[in-house]
Design goal:
oxygen transport; Globin-like_OT; mainly alpha
Length: 170
């Protein structure tokens, strides 16, 4: 009986997810994504390099990077591959802003797959910091408080859903 109730609550929670962005914030994210998408390889690599620059100890989460300098990491195919996958996840986030339940299921699974790394929620906070830095750097003076708030809210949804996956028993 207790297990059935827990499963039902988990199922309901998983499929009632919503991204807390206003229509105006969704518009900002979509418009800025058009610019980011054209530079996605650069943005993905720059974000990871900033992530490792801010948190050199996190290289241990990536066996392929743990013994490398930032300049050596920058040259690897593995950095390109991981950056490409993260940018695809961001693209999926932008595309799914109006279908959060499906995207939440994807992010939960993504979180579960990262248990092997061993990723913690604070690592996702560091990814957000690196992403926001990279976006602000990319947009320069056209980066506004409204743009930052919209992207922060979107990333918080991503983080929250991935953390659910990380903390799941399955």
């Amino acid at each position: 009986m207790g297990c059935g109730s827990s499963l039902s609550a988990e199922f309901q929670e998983k499929y009632t997810a919503s991204i807390q962005l206003s229509a105006a914030q969704k518009k900002i994210v979509r418009e800025t994504w058009e610019f980011v998408e054209q530079r996605r390889s650069y943005v993905g690599k720059r974000m990871f390099l900033k992530f490792f620059e801010n948190n050199p100890e996190y290289k241990r989460l990536f066996p392929e990077f743990k013994e490398l300098s930032l300049s050596d990491i920058e040259k690897t195919k593995e950095l390109h591959g991981h950056a490409k996958r993260v940018m695809k996840a961001l693209e999926n986030a932008v595309s799914a802003m109006d279908d959060a339940e499906i995207f939440a299921a994807y992010l939960n699974e993504l979180g579960r797959r990262h248990k092997d790394r061993p990723m913690k929620p604070l690592h996702l906070d560091s990814v957000k910091t690196a992403l926001m830095f990279t976006l602000q750097e990319l947009f320069k003076s056209s980066w506004t408080e409204e743009t930052a708030e919209a992207w922060n809210k979107l990333f918080m949804f991503i983080k929250d859903q991935m953390v659910r996956g990380l903390q799941s028993r399955a």
